[in-house]
């Protein structure tokens, strides 16, 4: 058993190492060969059965014709013999002899050829009886002058003829049964031939698996790269073409991983280097702005306010760069955990309470119970950025609705506002890095334009999707505003997890 398993493994390994072209040709040959052999076998068997059936039908036809000819000849012989006894005409005796010769020919050339022992015995008896009558007719004694005497001799002939007829009928029935059996044999051959179809399909399935399995593994590796998971090496067995692709993918993975680490390190380093002097500038500008170092005239106060505003903007840019670094850091994607949706969203809304109250915005939360398996930090960044974006473009006394529902193991989060909306021209651009939407609102701090880019990148890496729809404020249009809908997998309700 162990030897068989080892042989099977070696065979599978040998087949897997073939090129895709050779494996395809080999698979096609192995699939078609049994079908071709079966087709030849079925054709040969059908031909043999058909030939045998034709011979049986021909023999039945010959037997029927011979039996009919025998009966007709015996009838004529009996008539000629009876007429000769009455008329004593030599011509009738000659006709009797000619008909007897024909009868002997029918028996020898047609009936005797079937090789049936019982039939041949009756035919011999019939021939002997006729020979006796033919020898007796030319020199009939006086007591043979009556027809009744002739009938006595022909009675035994008729008895033999009846036995011959019964035997030939039996032979005809046996031939008919044989023909029926041959027809059944054709059906049996066809059914046996059909058994090769599952075998060919199994061979085809094996080669399809051998060809597609390495490709599926490559697809899985490519999707993992798409999600930013660069840590795991790409090792794929299979054909030479698949191994070459796997090697190229692994080389690309290594380079992407190195670039990822460099980017993360650079952003962390530059952010740290910027924060140190920025803190000093912010502290100094604050001292100037609140007159801690002395009173300022109007011009000086205006310059001080500009410095404070730009320092705050620079601080926001640095924070956005650090958030964007979360997207670039693929290692954080590995820390998946059970995250309950409702408490997370409530906590995020609470953290933005000051901004919400400043614009007197009404917030409505529509959430069910459930959780999702993902990275908590990244899900938090997604919801925070969508909420911040909604607050930024929301007018005074507006409304923001956040809904979360789980259906078919997928979490759907919708953030809807009643703000200015997004034009059709801007919709394709809002997820581009550093793009800032056109807003008529007076926002003190301008954004970096990275928020929605971060959201889309994180959603994609979590195998999710994001959609956006928007209505601009128009006369009579009460459905103005924008709604962002995020869908993520691996979500469970309280009922499905129990």
TrEMBL record:
Its EC number is 2.7.13.3. It is found in: Membrane. Residues 269-492 form the Histidine kinase domain. GO terms for molecular function: phosphorelay sensor kinase activity. Its main location: membrane. Keywords: Kinase, Membrane, Phosphoprotein, Transferase, Transmembrane, Transmembrane helix, Two-component regulatory system. SMART domains: HAMP, HATPase_c, HisKA. The keyword Transmembrane helix applies. It is an enzyme of class 2 (transferase). Residues 209-261 form the HAMP domain. Signal peptide: none annotated. It catalyses: ATP + protein L-histidine = ADP + protein N-phospho-L-histidine. The chain crosses the membrane at residues 194-215. GO terms for cellular component: membrane. This is histidine kinase. It comes from Thalassotalea algicola.
């Amino acid at each position: 058993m162990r030897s068989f398993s080892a042989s099977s493994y070696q065979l599978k390994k040998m087949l897997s190492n073939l090129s895709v072209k050779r494996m395809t040709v080999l698979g096609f040959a192995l699939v078609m060969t049994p079908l071709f052999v079966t087709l030849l076998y079925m054709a040969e068997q059908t031909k043999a059965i058909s030939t045998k059936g034709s011979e049986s039908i021909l023999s039945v036809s010959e037997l029927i014709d011979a039996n009919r000819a025998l009966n007709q000849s015996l009838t004529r012989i009996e008539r000629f013999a009876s007429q000769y006894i009455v008329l004593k005409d030599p011509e009738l005796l000659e006709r009797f002899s000619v008909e007897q010769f024909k009868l002997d020919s029918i028996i020898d050339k047609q009936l005797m050829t079937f090789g049936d022992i019982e039939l041949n015995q009756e035919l011999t008896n019939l021939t002997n009886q006729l020979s006796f009558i033919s020898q007796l007719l030319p020199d009939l004694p006086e007591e043979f002058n009556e027809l009744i005497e002739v009938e006595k001799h022909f009675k035994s002939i008729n008895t033999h003829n009846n036995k011959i007829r019964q035997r030939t009928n039996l032979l005809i029935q046996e031939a008919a049964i044989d023909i029926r059996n041959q027809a059944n044999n054709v059906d049996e051959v066809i059914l046996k031939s059909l058994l090769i179809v599952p075998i060919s399909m199994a061979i085809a399935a094996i080669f399809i698996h051998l060809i597609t399995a390495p490709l599926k593994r490559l697809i899985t590796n490519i999707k993992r790269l798409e999600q930013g998971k660069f840590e795991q090496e790409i090792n794929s067995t299979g054909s030479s073409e698949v191994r070459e692709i796997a090697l190229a993918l692994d080389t690309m993975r290594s380079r992407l991983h190195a670039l990822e680490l460099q980017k993360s390190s650079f952003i962390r380093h530059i952010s740290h280097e910027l924060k140190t002097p920025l803190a000093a500038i912010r502290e100094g500008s604050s001292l100037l702005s609140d007159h801690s170092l002395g009173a300022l005239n109007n011009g000086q106060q205006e310059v001080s306010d500009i410095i404070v505003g730009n320092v705050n903007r620079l601080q926001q840019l640095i924070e956005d760069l650090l958030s964007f670094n979360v997207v670039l850091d693929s290692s954080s994607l590995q820390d998946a955990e059970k995250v309950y949706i409702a408490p997370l969203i409530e906590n995020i809304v609470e953290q933005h309470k000051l901004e919400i109250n400043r614009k007197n915005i009404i917030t409505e939360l529509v959430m069910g119970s459930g959780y999702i398996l993902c990275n908590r930090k990244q899900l938090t960044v997604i919801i925070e950025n969508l909420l911040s974006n909604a607050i930024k473009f929301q007018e005074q006394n507006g409304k923001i609705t956040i809904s979360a529902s789980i259906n078919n193991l997928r979490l759907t989060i919708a953030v809807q506002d009643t703000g200015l909306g997004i034009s059709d021209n801007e919709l394709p651009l809002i997820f581009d890095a550093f793009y800032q939407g056109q807003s008529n609102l007076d926002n003190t701090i301008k954004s970096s334009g990275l928020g929605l880019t971060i959201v889309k990148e994180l959603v994609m890496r979590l195998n999710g999707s994001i959609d956006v729809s928007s209505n601009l404020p128009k006369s009579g249009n009460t459905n103005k505003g924008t709604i962002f809908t995020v869908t993520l997998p691996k979500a469970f309700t309280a009922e499905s997890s129990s």
